[in-house]
Amino acid sequence: MNSRFINWIWHVRGSLALSPEQSGEDAFDRLAPLFRQTGTSHKRTSDSLTFRKIDPAAQDKMSVFDGGVLQIERGAGGDVLHYNLTSRALLFCFLAPLLFLVFAQLTVLKGKFDKPPAESASKAEALKKTERESAMLIQNPIDKALGAPAPEKPKKGEKRGGDRKASPKAAYIFAGIFAALYFVGRIWEARLIGSLFRKRLTE
Predict the structure, then answer these.
(1) What was the pLDDT predicted at 195?
(2) Which residues pair with 189 in a beta bridge?
(3) pTM for this model (two decimals)
(4) Which one of 90, 132, 137, 171 is CB 3.0 to 4.6 Å from 104, fit for a cystine?
């Protein structure tokens, strides 16, 4: 399988046409300040620039990216800047929903295995519950003498703390949150970095 069909998940690619009078050397000179940030190292040749980021500063406009390659190629209409940037943050936001969905399915399976296997078990559990409720309704003589109200029978359908079942709802919520973060971030970061490069090249 072509890796391009997979690594688009955490790769941001794009291209910008340079103005006719702008050389590749001039383009890299204009972009150079972006790669002189704290935690950033880069290597530059006549037609390409490779960079890596380790623990970048929060104010770094490219802090979401861990590395990448920028390359100047000659096209029919002039020079074109192509870039391919990688982001572990995007990869994490893509994988997180899958992880939470796995947790949700495990919770559902656990709930199925926790159910009584036979009708006799259900009857036995109902009998125990009735006995517990009856015992809870017996009022202590001291409480009665002090005028305390008699304990009320739990309402139909009301569950006590010990009867609560694990719910996959929280896992589904977190999966949705991270999925939204990924799709919004994937589109936003691609537009943001393209706009940033374009602004630097035309200043």
Answers:
(1) 96
(2) none
(3) 0.70
(4) 171
At residue 115, what is the residue type? K
Amino acid found at 183: F
With H, G, I as helix, E, B as strand and everything else as coil, classify residue 140.
Answer: coil
Give the separation between CA 171 and CA 187, rounded to whole angstroms. 25
CA distance 112 to 61: 49
Q: How far is CA 48 from its chain centroid?
A: 32
- Cβ–Cβ under 8 Å, residues 122 and 49: no
- For the beta carbon of residue 100, count every other beta carbon within 10 angstroms: 21
* 201/203 Cα distance (integer angstroms): 6
Contacts 24+ apart (CB under 8 A), 131-140: none
DSSP 32: G
Q: How far is CA 159 from CA 15, 147, 162, in A?
A: 60, 27, 8
Which pLDDT score is estimated for 90? 94
Asked if 130 contacts 201 with a C-beta cutoff of 8 angstroms, the reply is no
Backbone CA torsion sign across 187, 188, 193, 199: positive
